[in-house]
Design goal:
The complex is a heterodimer of chains A (763) and B (327).
Chain A: H1 26-30, E1 46-52, E2 58-64, H2 66-69, E3 74-78, E4 86-87, E5 101-102, E6 108-109, E7 115-121, H3 124-131, E8 135-140, E9 156-157, E10 163-165, H4 168-173, E11 177-185, E12 197-203, E13 206-210, H5 216-227, E14 234-237, H6 253-265, E15 269-272, H7 275-281, E16 288-296, E17 302-313, E18 336-344, H8 358-376, H9 380-386, H10 404-415, E19 428-429, E20 432-444, E21 451-457, E22 462-465, H11 475-487, E23 494-497, H12 514-539, E24 553-556, E25 559-562, E26 569-571, H13 572-578, E27 583-589, H14 598-606, E28 622-634, E29 640-650, H15 657-676, E30 708-712, H16 736-748
Parallel strand pairs in A: 1-15, 13-14, 17-18, 22-23, 29-30
Antiparallel strand pairs in A: 1-7, 2-6, 2-8, 3-7, 4-5, 9-18, 10-18, 11-16, 12-13, 12-15, 16-17, 19-20, 20-28, 21-22, 21-27, 24-25, 25-26, 28-29
Helix pairs in contact in A: 8-16, 11-12, 15-16
Chain B: E1 5-8, H1 12-18, E2 24-27, H2 33-38, E3 46-49, E4 59-61, E5 65-69, H3 74-78, H4 81-86, H5 88-95, H6 100-105, H7 108-112, H8 166-172, E6 176-178, E7 183-185, H9 186-189, E8 211-215, H10 218-221, E9 223-228, E10 239-247, E11 254-262, E12 269-270, H11 272-278, H12 285-293, H13 306-323
Parallel strand pairs in B: 1-3, 2-3
Antiparallel strand pairs in B: 4-5, 5-8, 6-7, 6-8, 9-10, 10-11, 11-12
C-alpha cells in the first residue's frame, strides 16, 4: 500500500469495481496531512466572527458599533444597516426571482441564533472581543419556541404531500384489530466533525472560496448570483470535507457575509462558524409528530394505514420533514391515507439531515407495526413478512429490485431471532432487561447526471477529474476503481482529483445519489478514453500497432497489446512516447444527447432540474434494509444500552464493499445516537437551543457502540444506475431508532413513542 | 482582543502571592479555565501557570492513608494501584469522569474547582441574568431547560449542579484539603448555593489547594462509585453515588457506611441521613431502599429534573447493595 502519498491508491489484488480497497485519503486524515477548507494557507487574512440574535422574534432597532469599531484590530463591522448589494440566488430548482435584494444580515429576526452582524478584525480573538462592545437594541415580539409551544397551533396542510388510495377510514373501521398511536421526534442536528466556515478571496472580480461543500458547482453559482458575477468568476474548492450529512449542499448567509467583507476590505477573509453557531447557521432535522392508525385482520393481514403527520418549519419558509415518506411503501396495503402539515415556529428553516423524511417516517410506521404485532400476539418478523409488498402500492409500479424479504430473513438468521421469547419483559440477566426489536428502512434511488474528465499523461499515469466531492464516503477511491476497470490501468497508476468547481460538474453528494451518478460518468469517460487510446494506437503514424492489421487492441494491467497475443505489447508511457502524444484528455457526461448545450449542462450541475425521483420511470426503485437490535435496559435506572445489532441491506451492487459497510455502520451509529441521545433542548421562553455544543448535545461515543454486523443481500440493479448500485449513504440510519425503541418495549413492556429513549422516560 | 498577563510562578509562595491580585487565576491542566474563557464566563486579568511547580504532583500511599498532590493528573491517580487498593471509589470516580484526553491533562486541584455545566451560566451573551456570574441579576435556569440541574442544596438564587465525580468520593471518605495555612475537610470546602451562588468554595485569594489527604478505612477499602447517565462515557452524571461499607464481625450488620451523591446537588453531597439510618442494622435490600430515599429529603425539582429525585435513591441503593455483596 502506498496510501501515504496523496491521490494514489494502493495496489490491491483487485482494484476494480467491487474490490475492498481502503480509502486512499484515510491515512492523510488521521495523520493530519489532509488540508481542510479553513486550513488553506492564504496570505494577509482578516478574520470574521458572526454575531447571532439572542431573541427569537422581533427586529434589530439599532446597533451601536462605535466602540467595537474602535477596538484594537477591528477592520469592519457589518450590521443590518449595511447594504451589501447582494441579490437573491436561485433555489434548488434553478428558479430565481428578478431583482430581489438579499440581506444576509436581516433586520427582521425570525429565530434565536439568526446571524445579524459580523465583526472583521486582524485576528479572530480581536473580533471576538469587539463583539462584546456592540450595543444591539431589539424590538422583541412574542415568538413560538417550538412544535410543543401552545401557540404553535396545527399549522397548514401541504397538499402536495397528501396521498391516498382505496378507502382507508372505512377499511380501518371494518378492521378486526386496530392500533392508533402518536410518535414524536425532536429537533436533531448534523454536528459534523468539521464545523462550517470558509475563506473568501477576491482578485479583481474573480472570487475564490475555500469551503466544505457537498456540491461545488451549485455553491459556486450561489456566490456568483449573490454578487452578480458570471458563474465562471467564482471558484469553490472543497478537497476534503469533514462530514456534511446534508448541511453542506448550499452556500449560507455566513458565506455571503464573509465574501462581502472580503470585497469591502480588499483582502481575504476567513470565517469560522463556532460550534454553538453551527446549531442555528443552517437547519437540522425538524421536530416531528405523527399519528398512525393501522387496521388488520385477526391473523395480521394489514387492511388500512392512516397517517397524519406534522413537522415544524420556520416562519419564513415551508420546509416539510416528510413523516409520510416511508409509510406507503414498506408494506402491502390496499387502503391508505396520509396527510402532512407544517407548523411555523421561530426556528432556522430546517434542512435535510441523513435520511430526510424516511427517517422519522420509519420511526412512526415501524413502531406502529411493532405495536400491531404485540396486539395480535404475533412475531413482528412474521407480521412484516406476511404483509410483504410485492409491488409499490402507491404508484402501482413494480420494484426494480427489492430484496427486503431476504434482508429480513437473513438478518433474522444471523441475529438468532428464532430464539426470541416474544412476551415483553421475558428476557433478563440480573437487573438488565433484555429486548430484541426489528426496524425496516428504505431510501429512494435518486438519479442525476454527472460529468468527468480522464487525462492519460505521457508518464502513463491517469487522472480522473470531477467537481464531485468526497466527505468520507469514498468518492476518491471508487472513482479510481471505476477508471481502473474501464481503462485497463492498475488502480495505483490512477490519481483522482475532486472538489473544485473548475472541474467537470456532478450530481450533489446528497440524496444518496452521487456514487451511482459519478461512477456512471467516470465509467463512460474512461471507456471513451480507452477507445481513443486504441484508435490512436491503431492509426498514429509512428505506432507499432499500425501495421498489425488488428481491428482493435486490448488494454489491461496498464499495457496495450494485440488481443490475439501475437504482436507488440507496450506500456502506456511507451505507447505515448512512440506516437509522440504528450497527453490524452477526454470529457464525457451522462446528460441525454439533446441536453448537451451549455445552459442545460450548467443547470444539471447546479440545480435539481435533471434529478429523477424513484418512480419517474417504469419501476419503483429504492434501497432497503432490516435492522435487528438487542438492548439491555437497567430496570432500576432506565438506561438503555444497545448490546448487539445485525443489519441486512439491499443496496444493489456494492462498488467497494469495505466502504459501503463503513457507511452503513456510520448510519447505524448515527441512528443509535438518534434513538438514545440526540435532542435539541429549546428554551420555551426565547426559542434558544440551550444545548448548542457537543458537550451537551450528545452523540454516541465508542463505548455506546457494540459490534455492528452488516450483511449485503442486494443484487445489481441496472435500472438504478449504470454500474448496478443503489444508494448506501442514508438508508443505514433509517429504521435504526424504531428497531431500538421496539427492543426497549420488548425488554421493558414500556412503549416510548417520543425520541430519544432517555432514562427519565423509562425509570 | 482581551489581553491578560501570563506568568509562570517561580515558587509556591510566588503563586499564592499572585492570586491576591484582582482577576488572577491559576492555570494547571487548563481544561476548565480555557473552556470557560472561550464561552466568555471567565475573563482573567492574570493567569499564573503553576504546572511546572515541583513536588505538587506526588501521590503518596502509606499505612495511614493517601496524599494526592494538587498537580497530579487525573489519569495518574486513576491508574495508581495504591489508590485503587485503599479507595476503589476514588479510582472509579476518576476513571468514569470526562474523557481519556481530558484526564491526561486535568489535575486533581483543578478538577475539584471545576464549575457547573449549567447552560445558562455558560451562555452570558444570551442569558445575562445569572447570580453565579453576576450576583443579584437573577437565575435564567429557573423556568428554562432544567434536565441537568440540581435538586438538592439549591435556592431561588441558583439551581446549578456541581458537575464533578471525584469530589463525591472525597466527601464520602472525609478527605481533607491541604491549603497550606489550613486544613479544610472537603465537605466544608464547598458551599451550597443558597444565598451567594457566586461563592462556591471557601478558598480565599492567597490560598491554593496543595493536596488532598485521605485516611485509610475499612469502609474506604470496600467502596465503589456508581455513575448513571444516558451515554456510557464522557457525560456528566444524571445521578451518582460514592459508597463505602464496613460490617461488624457478623458480616451483615453495618458498622460504618459512607454515602455521597453527585449529579443532583449544588455541591458534593454527603447523605448522612442514609448512613445514620443504616448503621447498626443488618444490610438488607428493603432496608437499604428505604434508607436511600432519605437522601432526597428537602429535594426541590423544576419539573425537567424531577426524575433525579426518583433515580438518585436507586443509584444509592444499587451502590450499597453492590459493596454489600447483595447486588
Amino acid at each position: 500500500m502506498t496510501i501515504m502519498e496523496p491521490r494514489k491508491h494502493g495496489s490491491a489484488a483487485d482494484g476494480f469495481v467491487g474490490g475492498r480497497l481502503s480509502r486512499f485519503e484515510g491515512q492523510m486524515k488521521v495523520t493530519g496531512a489532509a488540508t481542510y477548507a479553513l486550513e488553506y494557507p492564504v496570505e494577509n487574512l482578516a478574520h470574521a466572527v458572526l454575531v447571532q440574535s439572542t431573541i427569537a422574534s422581533g427586529r434589530v432597532v439599532s446597533v451601536d458599533k462605535a466602540e467595537a469599531q474602535a477596538a484594537p484590530g477591528v477592520l469592519l463591522v457589518l450590521t443590518p444597516e449595511d447594504d451589501l448589494g447582494l441579490m437573491t440566488k436561485s433555489d434548488w430548482f434553478g428558479n430565481r426571482p428578478d431583482n430581489e435584494p438579499y440581506a444576509p444580515l436581516p433586520r427582521e429576526i425570525s429565530y434565536n441564533g439568526e446571524t445579524i452582524a459580523a465583526v472583521i478584525a486582524e485576528s479572530r480573538e480581536q473580533a471576538v472581543e469587539a463583539i462584546k462592545l456592540l450595543r444591539i437594541a431589539y424590538d422583541e415580539t412574542p415568538g413560538v419556541a417550538d412544535l410543543h409551544d401552545p401557540k404553535a397551533g396545527d399549522g397548514k396542510v401541504m397538499d402536495n404531500l397528501s396521498v391516498s388510495w382505496g378507502d382507508a377510514e372505512a377499511a380501518l373501521a371494518a378492521s378486526a384489530v386496530t392500533i392508533e398511536a402518536e410518535y414524536q421526534t425532536p429537533r436533531e442536528y448534523h454536528v459534523a466533525m468539521e464545523p462550517h466556515g470558509l475563506t473568501a478571496k477576491w482578485e479583481g472580480d474573480q472570487l475564490t472560496i475555500w469551503e466544505p461543500s457537498q456540491w461545488t458547482h451549485a455553491m459556486a453559482l450561489n456566490y456568483a448570483e449573490w454578487f452578480g458575477l458570471p458563474p465562471d468568476n467564482v471558484r469553490l474548492i472543497s478537497t476534503f470535507v469533514g462530514g456534511g450529512f446534508g448541511s453542506k449542499g448550499a452556500a449560507l448567509a455566513y458565506g455571503a457575509v464573509a465574501a462581502s467583507a472580503a470585497r469591502k476590505l480588499g483582502r481575504p477573509v476567513k470565517l469560522a462558524v463556532t460550534r454553538p453557531q453551527n446549531f442555528t447557521s443552517y437547519g437540522g432535522r425538524a421536530a416531528t409528530r405523527q399519528t398512525i392508525k393501522l387496521g388488520a385482520t385477526k391473523d395480521g393481514v394489514l387492511q388500512a394505514i392512516v397517517h397524519r403527520g406534522a413537522s415544524e418549519t420556520s416562519v419564513t419558509t415551508d420546509y416539510p420533514e416528510q413523516t409520510g415518506a416511508a409509510t406507503p411503501i414498506l408494506y402491502k396495503v390496499e387502503n391508505y391515507s396520509s396527510q402532512s402539515r407544517v407548523v411555523p415556529v421561530n426556528t432556522v428553516t430546517p434542512g435535510a439531515l441523513r435520511g430526510p423524511g424516511k427517517n422519522p417516517s420509519a420511526f412512526g410506521i415501524e413502531c406502529a407495526m411493532d405495536e400491531l404485532a404485540n396486539k395480535l400476539g404475533m412475531d413482528p418478523l412474521e407480521l412484516r413478512l406476511k404483509n410483504y409488498a410485492d409491488r409499490d402500492y402507491q404508484t402501482g409500479k413494480p420494484w426494480s429490485t427489492r430484496m427486503l424479504r431476504e434482508a429480513l430473513t437473513q438478518g433474522a438468521e444471523a441475529f438468532g431471532w428464532s430464539k426470541r421469547s416474544h412476551a415483553p419483559r421475558s428476557m433478563r440477566e440480573g437487573r438488565q432487561l433484555i429486548g430484541w426489536g426489528i426496524g425496516c428502512g428504505t431510501f429512494p434511488v435518486i438519479q442525476a447526471p454527472s460529468a468527468a474528465m480522464i487525462r492519460i499523461l505521457a508518464n502513463g499515469r491517469v487522472e480522473v477529474v470531477s467537481g464531485a466531492i468526497d466527505m468520507g464516503q469514498g468518492t476518491y477511491t471508487i472513482l479510481a476503481q471505476t477508471a481502473s476497470e474501464a481503462l485497463g490501468v492498475p488502480v495505483d497508476q490512477i490519481d483522482v482529483l475532486l472538489g473544485d468547481s473548475r472541474m467537470p460538474g456532478s450530481a450533489i453528494a446528497g440524496g444518496s445519489m452521487l456514487a451511482g451518478s459519478i461512477t456512471g460518468a467516470v465509467h463512460k469517460t474512461a471507456a471513451a478514453a480507452r477507445d481513443e487510446l486504441i484508435g490512436l494506437a491503431l492509426n498514429a503514424p509512428n505506432s507499432p500497432f499500425r501495421d498489425t492489421g488488428a481491428n482493435t487492441l486490448s488494454v489491461a494491467g496498464g499495457r496495450i497489446s494485440v488481443s490475439s497475443g501475437n504482436g507488440p505489447s507496450m506500456s502506456l508511457p511507451e505507447l505515448m512516447t512512440a506516437i509522440g502524444q504528450s497527453e490524452l484528455e477526454v470529457t464525457r457526461n451522462t446528460l441525454p444527447d439533446d441536453a448537451q448545450g451549455a445552459t442545460d449542462q450548467n443547470a444539471a450541475w447546479t440545480s435539481m432540474k435533471r434529478v429523477q425521483g424513484p418512480t419517474m420511470g417504469e419501476f419503483s426503485m429504492h434501497s432497503w434494509c432490516a435492522h435487528f437490535a438487542e438492548v439491555r435496559v437497567d430496570e432500576d435506572f432506565g438506561t438503555v444500552r444497545v448490546s448487539r445489532m445485525v443489519s441486512a441491506f439491499d443496496c444493489g451492487r456494492l462498488y467497494n464493499p469495505k466502504m459501503v459497510e463503513s457507511q452503513w455502520r456510520g448510519g447505524i451509529i448515527m441512528g443509535i445516537g438518534q434513538a438514545l441521545f440526540e435532542e435539541g433542548m429549546v428554551d420555551g421562553r426565547n426559542g434558544r437551543t440551550v444545548n448548542n455544543n457537543v458537550g451537551d448535545y450528545l452523540v454516541p461515543t465508542n463505548a455506546d457502540i457494540p459490534d455492528l454486523q452488516v450483511i449485503s443481500v442486494g443484487v445489481p440493479d441496472l435500472n438504478a444506475s449504470a454500474l448496478g448500485g443503489k444508494g448506501v449513504g442514508e438508508v443505514g440510519i433509517v429504521g435504526v431508532a424504531p428497531a431500538i425503541a421496539n427492543a426497549v418495549f420488548h425488554a421493558t413492556g414500556k412503549r416510548v413513542r417520543d425520541l430519544p429513549l432517555t432514562l427519565d422516560k423509562l425509570i | 482582543m482581551r489581553d491578560f498577563s501570563y506568568s509562570r510562578a517561580g515558587s509556591l509562595d510566588e503563586a499564592r502571592q499572585a492570586t491576591l491580585a484582582p482577576g488572577a487565576l491559576l492555570l494547571a491542566g487548563g481544561t476548565t479555565l480555557l473552556d470557560l474563557a472561550k464561552c466568555g464566563v471567565t475573563e482573567p486579568e492574570t493567569v499564573i501557570d503553576i504546572t511546572h511547580l515541583a513536588g505538587l504532583d506526588a501521590i503518596t500511599v502509606d499505612e495511614e492513608g493517601i496524599a494526592i498532590g494538587a498537580l497530579a493528573r487525573m489519569s495518574a491517580v486513576a491508574d495508581h494501584p495504591g489508590v485503587q487498593a485503599a479507595l476503589p471509589a476514588v479510582t472509579q470516580s476518576l476513571s468514569l469522569a470526562a474523557s481519556a484526553q481530558l484526564r491526561n491533562m486535568a489535575t486533581i486541584g483543578g478538577n475539584l474547582l471545576q464549575r457547573t455545566r449549567c447552560s445558562y451560566f455558560r451562555d452570558p451573551a444570551t442569558f445575562p441574568a445569572c447570580n453565579k456570574r453576576n450576583p443579584g441579576s437573577g437565575c435564567s435556569a429557573i423556568g428554562g431547560v432544567t434536565r441537568n440541574h440540581a435538586v438538592l442544596g439549591t435556592s431561588e438564587q441558583c439551581i446549578a449542579s456541581y458537575p464533578g465525580d471525584m469530589a463525591i468520593a472525597l466527601v464520602a471518605f472525609d478527605a481533607v484539603l491541604d491549603l497550606g495555612t489550613r486544613q479544610v475537610p472537603v465537605e466544608d470546602f464547598f458551599l451550597s448555593y443558597a444565598d451567594a451562588p457566586e461563592e462556591e468554595t471557601v478558598l480565599k485569594p492567597g490560598e491554593m489547594i496543595l493536596a488532598v489527604k485521605l485516611r485509610n478505612s475499612a469502609a474506604g477499602m470496600r467502596s465503589t462509585y456508581l455513575k448513571v447517565r444516558d451515554r456510557q462515557s464522557y457525560e456528566f452524571a444524571a445521578a451518582s453515588a460514592a459508597v463505602g461499607l464496613e460490617f461488624e464481625d457478623d458480616g451483615r450488620t453495618v458498622k460504618d457506611i459512607r454515602v455521597a451523591l453527585g449529579g443532583v446537588a449544588s455541591k458534593p453531597w454527603r447523605a448522612r441521613a442514609v448512613e445514620q439510618a443504616l448503621v447498626g442494622k443488618p444490610l438488607e435490600a428493603d432496608t437499604v431502599a428505604w434508607a436511600a430515599r432519605l437522601a432526597m429529603d428537602g429535594a426541590v425539582s423544576y419539573s425537567d429534573n424531577l426524575y433525579k429525585i426518583e433515580l438518585a435513591p436507586r443509584v444509592v441503593t444499587r451502590a450499597i447493595l453492590t459493596v454489600g455483596g447483595l447486588a
